[in-house]
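User: My collaborator and I are trying to settle a disagreement about how two of our proteins should look. Neither of us wants to argue from intuition anymore, so we agreed to look at predicted structures for both before our next call. Could you fold the first one, then the second, and keep them clearly separated?

Assistant: That sounds like a sensible way to settle it. I'll keep them separate. The first protein:
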Amino acid sequence: MISLKQTSVSLVRRANTVRSFHHSTTVLARTKYSPPREVKEKVAPKPLFPLKPTQGLEVTEAIPPTRHNIECPDTHPLWQFFHDKQFIRSTEQLDTTSRSWSIPELRRKSFNDLHSLWYNCLRERNKLAREIHLIRAGLHTEGDHFVAVDERVRTTMWRIRHVLSERDHAFTKASVHSADRDELIKSFSNKFINSSADSEEPWEQLKRFQWALFGINEIIEDNKVIDPKFVEGLKCVANLKLQKLSQVDPQIKEWYVTKWGNQPLTDIAQCFVIFSCENDVKATLEACSVVEDLKAEPARLIPKEEEVKTVESYINQLITTPAE
C-alpha cells in the first residue's frame, strides 16, 4: 500500500510541475501589487496647412495663358512638333515642288542612311499632322498644300519599308541550304549576264546580290569581316562582270574568250583587279591588261590559304590610298 506521506509528496511535485509549465507560456494577470504602467503623452497631429491667418489676401481674375507669360526652354522636346518654333507655316514655306524618293534611289542607300531618312520623314509628318489639325479645327478647311506634302512624305516612308523588306527577303534566301544557294547564284548569274546592257538596274541588282549572299558592301570602308565567304563572293562578282561586259565590247571578249579560253578567273589577285574597277568598258579593259601581266608571272599567284589575308591587305590599301 502507498502511504499518505508518499501521496502528498507526489501531489506537491505535480503541482510544481504544472505551475512551472504555465508560468513559462502565459502572461500573468495584473494585481494590485503590480507596478504601474508607463503613461505616454499624447502628441497632437500637425496640421497640413498653417492655422495662422494670412493678411492681405484678395481674389483676382484668372490670367489667360499666352506666349508672353509662359516660359518654355529651347530644348523642350515638344518643339520638335513645330517648324522653327512657328505656330503654323505659310504656304510659301512648304516645299511644294519636291517629290517622293523612288525605290531605285532608296536601294542605293545603306541601312544607316535609310534609318536616318525614315526618322527625318517621321519628324516632318509630326509637324504636318499638328498643322493640318489646326487648319481643320480653326479654319474648317482641308489645307490641301499641307496634305499633299504629307502624302509625299508618307509615300517615301512606305518605299523605305519596301526596300528593307526586299533586303530581308534576300538575306533569308541567302541563308538557305547550300544546294538551294548554288541554284540561286546560278539563276541570278543567267539573269544578270543576259540583261540589257544599257540599263543600270542590273548593276544595282549585282550590288544587292553580293551583299545578300556574300556580305560584300559596296562602300569599301564598311567591309569589316573578311572571311572565305567574302573571298568566294569576290571571285563570283569579278567573273560575272567579265562575262557581262564581254558581250558588250569586242576587246573585252578578246581578252576573256580568246586569250583566257572563256575560263573563269580563280586567282584572288586577278579577281580583285576586275572586282575593284569601275563597271564600264574603259576601266575593265585597263583591268584586263593588269590581269594579263599577272598571268604572265605564275610566281605571283596567291595560295588559297593566304587569300583571306591578301584581300584584307588589298582593302586596307584602298581605304588608306587618297582619292585622286
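The second protein, kept apart from the first:
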Amino acid sequence: MYFEGAEKRLSLTLVAASPSLRGLGDDFWRRALLKSDTEILSKLSCEQCDAYLLSESSLFVWHDNLVLITCGNTRLIETVLSLVESLGNVQIASLSYQRKSEILPALQSSRFEDDIARLRGMLSGDAYRIGHLDGHHHQLFLSGEMVQLKAVQTVQMYHIRGELADYLLCDRQTAEGIATRLNLSQLLPGFYFDAHLFSPLGYSLNALRGDDYFTVHITPQEASSYVSLETNLSLGEDLGGIVNELLNRLNPVSWDVSGFEAQEPGYCAEQYSLQASGELTLADGLGLYIKHYKQRDCEQLLPVTL
C-alpha cells in the first residue's frame, strides 16, 4: 500500500482591519476543502484559533491568517484558488504556496509549474525551487508582503525505523498509545490535543495553546514511511529538544527541517550529519531556510519482491 506523505502547504495572511477568517464558519471551510478532495474530521478551538483535523492533514484558522496542509493526492491548488477568489486580492497581505518533491509525482493531479501558472492569473508573485530537480527539493510561490508571514518550523522525516515504527504498523496500536510513545504530553505542556487514528494505518494530531499550534502526521507504511511535524513555536521555546526527542524515538534514515525564521536552528541529533542546506533571503531579515540531514551510518538496502 502506497500513500504520498509529503504535504502541499498554504499560508495566507489578511491585511489589517479585514473581516475575521474565523467568522466565515465551518460550512465555508467544508465547501472550500471539498475542492481539494479533503474533509473535516474534527475541530479543536481556543480563544485565538480553530484547528481542523482533516482526512488529509490539517487546517489552522486565526482571525487574520491561516495555515492549510494537505497530503496524498489532494488538489490543494483548487482550494487555494477558491480562497483567493472568495477573499479577494485586496484583502490578502501575503500568500505562500509550497510543495515538497513527491516520491511518485506521476500520481499527482498537477505539477507545481501548473499550479503556479494558474495562481499567477490571480496574484502577482515569485516562484522558487531549492534543491536539485532530480532529487530532494522544495518549491514555493510567494506573493505580497513577506514580512507578514508568520515564523514556522516544519520537520519531515523519511523511512522511520525501530520499536515505535513497528508499533505504528501493528494491529494493536491506539491513538492514546501513539501519543504516549511520542511523549507528547511532556513535550507540549499546556497544549490541548485532537488526534485521529486512520484505518488501516496512519495518525494525525493537532495541538493548540493560545496562539501556538503543533501538528503531527504519520504515514507508517514500510515502503514510504513518513512523519511530519509543524509548529510556530520559536527557537527559544526548546523546540530543538522536542525535535531531538522525536528523532530519537522515530529514528528516520533522513529528515528535513525548513521554515520562515530570522534565525536558523542549530540543533541536530548526534547520529545525523548535514547533507545539504539552502537559504532564500526575503524582506526585513526574514528568510526561508532548508536543511537536509541523513544518518551517519551506511544504510543497508534490502531487495524487495515486486
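Some points you might bring to the call about the second protein. The first helix runs from residue 26 to 34. The first strand starts at residue 8 and ends at 14.
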